[in-house]
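[step 3/7] fold_predict: job queued, chain A
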Amino acid sequence: MPKRLLVVVGMCLAAVVVLAAAPPKVAPPKKVFVSSLQPRNTAPAVVEMIDGSVCNAIHGDKRFEPVCPPDIKAILEYDSLNNAFGNSSRCADNDCWGRLAKRVQAEMMLSGSVAKLDKSKFVLTLDLVDVTSAKSLGHVEEQVTGTEEQLYKRAEDAVKKLLGQVK
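[step 4/7] structure written:
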């Protein structure tokens, strides 16, 4: 009988050790609604390319889950069929963007612009806002001298810098 008791106690201790060694629970990623960047004297195709770079950078940070412009466009197109946002597949104002961010249960909204100052000089501006409180969580402005490809690469760095401001 004592041998059987030792086996049971040993199994219980082993179970405690296994449970204690289990990895800690990780908080789910915060959802970031990424509105399409506003073009300022910049071709729409360039802005779409930078939107992609922004979303790629957010995907690279496991603390966040982006809802990107192609996802948003699909939602708007679906809603325009149901007249939820009128007969347009575009948001024209911040109120529309805010409603969409809340609809996809995003905690934060990233917005900004891409401005072309001259042939080889750009300014990328990014803002991150808490959707619930409308409080600014961060702001980054990057000046890029070079090609559109260099702008694309620097956009990822700008997003990393912006997300680094989130506590």
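[step 5/7] annotate
The chain has a mean pLDDT of 84.
The longest helix spans residues 2-20.
exit 0
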